[in-house]
Hints:
It contains ten helices and no strands. The chain is an all-alpha fold.
Amino acid sequence: xxxxxxxxxxxxxxxxxxxxxxxxxxxxxxxxxxxxxxxxxxxxxxxxxxxxxxxxxxxxxxxxxxxxxxxxxxxxxxxxxxxxxxxxxxxxxxxxxxxxxxxxxxxxxxxxxxxxxxxxxxxxxxxxxxxxxxxxxxxxxxxxxxxxxxxxxxxxxxxxxxxxxxxxxxxxxxxxxxxxxxxxxxxxxxxxxxxxxxxxxxxxxxxxxxxxxxx
Length: 215
């Protein structure tokens, strides 16, 4: 391979990366803006200024504000939320129920003040946009579904391991846990209380102990 060919390949690789890097910068800025102000109040001008790009660059990747919002749900919020709640549950363990309890305990310990003040970004958008935009509602529901599926799968693994009672309905418990976690964010946000959120996460971990099979 000649030096000219190598330089051409490098240039081509840079050109391939640069649009994706620009897209990611826009998405990060859009997420921050939407998280702080809500989707309807989010400003395209602030997003492009924060991202350091032009409006032309933004509209090259996202034809309108709605498509940008959908991408924030699909590409930012979904990955962040599922990694936080479900990532640790994918690890092999002899006691999946304990792993699920630990996920709630860790979430309570690691939550930051700004998260309590701003709330859960997924729940915020569900409250704001699901009644107004079916596309938003469907995308948000897909994230909730994946979250519930992850919890239900963990509970099923715990049943198979003999640590959860056979009469436990995994899907119903998973739905309750997700609703309780999001409800906890909502009431803690209104109260601006870290302690309230942390106490609820501890109680949910304790509730999971009631599902445990007894010898």
